[in-house]
Amino acid sequence: MLKEKICAGIIIDNLSRILLVKRKYNLKSLPNYWWIPGWHIEDWETLEQSVIREVKEEVWLDFSIIKLFETAELINKENNKIKIIHRFLGNVSWNIVIQENECDWFAWYNYDELVGLLINSNLRATIDKLKLNNIIK
Q1: Antiparallel, parallel or unpaired: β 81-93 and 2-11
Q2: How many Cβ atoms sit within 10 Å of the Cβ of residue 23?
Q3: What's the pTM value of the predicted model, to 2 decimals?
Q4: How far is CA 12 from each of CA 24, 30, 89, 120, rounded to the nearest angstrom?
Q5: pLDDT tens digits for 16-50?
Q6: Exposure b/e, 68-86, CB count within 10 A at least 16 = b
Q7: How far apart are CA 72 and CA 87, in angstroms?
Q8: Which residues fall within 8 angstroms of residue 9, CB to CB, at 6 or more apart?
Q9: CA 12/CA 15 separation, integer angstroms
Q10: Contact 9/38 with Cβ under 8 angstroms?
Q11: Rounded distance between C-alpha atoms, residue 73 and residue 3, angstroms
């Protein structure tokens, strides 16, 4: 299987809610799913540079890394690829402006409000881990 590295930023507000963005309906990968900002790593970037750039591109926030929260694998059997996802916890400053060609909407959620949202199982496991570690309410 081919392996691809990707990065994502976990953004928690002062009310212990997580920021999720809703992916556009016409995207090839995970259309209409709720996700955390991030994805592609450029060849010249470190993981940290990538997550800072991706958060800026997708929601126009300045992302300041606190720590690497986890590294997880997302296996896509259809195209025989494994995505290695590096999820960073961080702080942000500024106002959110979503990247309209990738995202339809954004919202802050506490754990109980996530019921019924279209979230893939890999991210759902991360959110459960955030709740277990009292990072989100």
Answers
A1: parallel
A2: 19
A3: 0.88
A4: 22, 22, 8, 19
A5: 999 999 999 998 878 999 999 998 899 999 999 99
A6: ebeebeeeeeeeeeebebb
A7: 8
A8: 36, 37, 38, 51, 52, 54, 55, 63, 87, 88, 90
A9: 8
A10: yes
A11: 9
DSSP string, 90-132: EEEES-----TTTEEEEEEE-GGGGTT----HHHHHHHHHHHH
> Is 87 in a helix, a strand, or coil?
strand
pLDDT of 66: 95
Task: Using DSSP bridges, classify how beta strands 34-35 and 38-40 pair: parallel, antiparallel or unpaired.
Answer: unpaired
> What is the C-alpha end-to-end distance of the chain, expressed in Å?
37
CA distance linking residue 64 with residue 92, whole number of Å: 6
CA–CA separation, 22 and 30 (whole Å) = 10
Amino acid code (one letter) for 97: V
Per-residue pLDDT tens over the stretch 64-117: 999 999 999 888 777 788 889 999 999 988 778 888 888 888 999 999 999 899
DSSP 4: E
